[in-house]
């Protein structure tokens, strides 16, 4: 973490004991250490408030760390649907989100997002947060455009992908997909987009 990130994170995104315990338990349980950073959690909350988010779709639950940040920015009747392919991750998240007191607001669906997304067709979300596998990102973007209401937001973690998007010599499938996602976010006339160079890059697009 650089000193600007430390300053901003320390001031705007201090973790309370519940967020801290979730992250530490996730490490102990052997979950991969790839949850969003606290400043990314705060950025998600800011975007949620800006678009008046009541219904959120997340792709990639892991241990529920990002879902907890987002649940805390929901109104009382708000709701998050989050998709997770690894049952062990979903079970960990279920337990910790219940323990954090936001369990009733977060529905976890277990399965590959590519298989789960069609069941959501026709529903309307205020924000879609993409944070799962990178290879299908262009497909996830198409789904997000179907599912987000006009004026809603599409957000994606890892938009800079450890810097690999900058290096034309890197041509693995995940990197190509992140690059293509960013290009569409920048050029699709339906989207007003930007990548904020927070942490590993946070892509934000406002739809319609
Ligand atoms: N949003 C989480 C981090 C997600 S890490 C947080 O910040 O706390 C990425 C997660 O996506 C992992 O748990 C992984 O199992 C899951 N995942 C990967 N590919 C997936 C897919 N195709 N469908 C659903 N989940 C997937
Ligand atoms: C990785 C990191 C992430 O934040 C993510 O959402 C998916 C994968 C990774 O480093 O492999
Ligand atoms: Mg991520």
Features:
7 strands; 8 helices; binds magnesium ion; binds S-adenosyl-L-homocysteine; seven-stranded mixed β-sheet; 208 residues; binds 3,4-dihydroxybenzoic acid; alpha/beta
Strand order of the largest sheet: 3-2-1-4-5-7-6
Return the structural class. Answer: alpha/beta
* Number of separate strands: 7
Helix content: 40-55%
The general outline is globular
Gyration radius, to the nearest Å?
16 Å
Our estimate of the beta-strand percent is 15-25%
Low confidence ranges: none
* Distinct small-molecule ligands in the complex: S-adenosyl-L-homocysteine, 3,4-dihydroxybenzoic acid, magnesium ion
CA-to-CA gap between the ends? 35 Å
Major beta-sheet overview = 7 strands, mixed
Overall average pLDDT: 98
- How many DSSP H or I helices? 8
Order of helices and strands: HHHEHEHEHEHEHEE
Write up this protein.
The structure is a single chain. With 208 residues, this protein is an alpha/beta fold. It has helices spanning 3-12, 17-28, 38-51, 65-71, 87-99, 113-116, 137-147, 173-187, and strands spanning 55-59, 79-84, 106-110, 125-130, 148-157, 191-196, 202-207. The protein has a seven-stranded mixed beta sheet with strand order 3-2-1-4-5-7-6, with helices on both faces. Helix 7 (137-147) links the parallel strand 4 and strand 5 (148-157). The longest helix is centred in the last third of the chain and has 15 residues, at 173-187. The chain starts with a helix and ends with a strand. Bound molecules: S-adenosyl-L-homocysteine (SAH), 3,4-dihydroxybenzoic acid (DHB) and magnesium ion (MG).
């Amino acid at each position: 973490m650089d000193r600007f990130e430390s300053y901003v994170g320390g001031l705007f995104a201090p973790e309370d004991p519940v967020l801290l315990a979730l992250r530490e338990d996730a490490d102990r349980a052997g979950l991969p250490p790839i949850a969003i950073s606290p400043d990314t959690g705060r950025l998600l909350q800011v975007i949620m408030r800006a678009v008046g988010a009541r219904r959120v779709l997340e792709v990639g639950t892991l241990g529920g760390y990002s879902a907890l940040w987002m649940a805390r920015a929901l109104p009382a009747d708000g709701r998050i649907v989050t998709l997770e392919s690894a049952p062990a991750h979903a079970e960990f998240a279920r337990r910790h989100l219940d323990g954090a007191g936001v369990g009733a607001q977060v529905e976890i669906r277990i399965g590959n997002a590519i298989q789960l997304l069609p069941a959501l067709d026709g529903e309307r979300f205020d924000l879609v947060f993409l944070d799962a596998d990178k290879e299908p990102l262009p497909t996830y973007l198409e789904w997000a455009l179907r599912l987000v209401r006009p004026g809603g937001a599409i957000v994606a973690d890892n938009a800079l992908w450890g810097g690999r998007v900058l290096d034309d010599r890197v041509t693995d499938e995940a990197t190509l997909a992140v690059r293509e996602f960013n290009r569409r976010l920048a050029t699709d006339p339906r989207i007003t987009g930007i990548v904020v160079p927070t942490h590993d890059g946070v892509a934000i697009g406002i739809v319609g």
